[in-house]
Amino acid sequence: MFESKQVIVLGERDGIAGPAIAACVESAGGHIAYTSTECFV
Amino acid sequence: MDLNSQETIKRLADEHGNEHLLVVLGAPDAESAEIAAETVVLGDPTYAGALAEAQLGLSVYHALEEEFRSQIGDDVWEEQIGIMADVLEAEEISAAVKGMREQAP
């Protein structure tokens, strides 16, 4: 899934935060191009 | 979706090519997951950001989808995502994102 991909992580404060998703992706060998944690209020 | 994120995604698509990008969402419900997925597949539905009318057709998954889950080791998954997987409606969210993925141009 991550091979030869640049991964864009769009986390959300009320869901799953960006750094948590990014840690998963990196643990599986994926390359993170961008991470954010958005907040809708 | 945050306007800064839209600008960054557009730039990354220009730099790397749409087919080399993969988007992973952490939205808390099906509605917000669907809007985020729509933004990177068909363009910003609010016409507010850089992705308005940009049909990038990016590969997009939610972190709770099995396709993503199956790539991650159990220990890391439990540590990073575990609790939220019990709280959020994974089935509804997964269906919403998959439905939008299938509309990719």
Largest sheet of chain B: 2 strands, parallel
Note the overall shape of chain B: globular
**What percentage of residues of chain A falls in helices of 4 or more residues?**
10-25%
What is the tally of beta strands of chain A? Answer: 2
Spans of chain B of at least 5 consecutive residues whose pLDDT stays below 50 are none
Number of extended strands of chain B: 2
- The domain count of chain A comes to 1
| Shape, principal axes of CA atoms of chain A | elongated
Instruction: Work out the radius of gyration of chain A.
Output: 10 Å
Protein structure class of chain A = alpha+beta
Q: Write down the overall mean pLDDT of chain B.
A: 96
Lateral strand order in the biggest sheet of chain A: 1-2
**End-to-end distance of chain B, in Å?**
20 Å
Give the strand content of chain B. 5-15%
Tell me the major beta sheet of chain A. Answer: 2 strands, parallel
**Main sheet: strand order of chain B:** 1-2
Approximate strand percentage of chain A: 35-45%
The DSSP helix count of chain A reads: 1
Tally the helices of chain B: 6
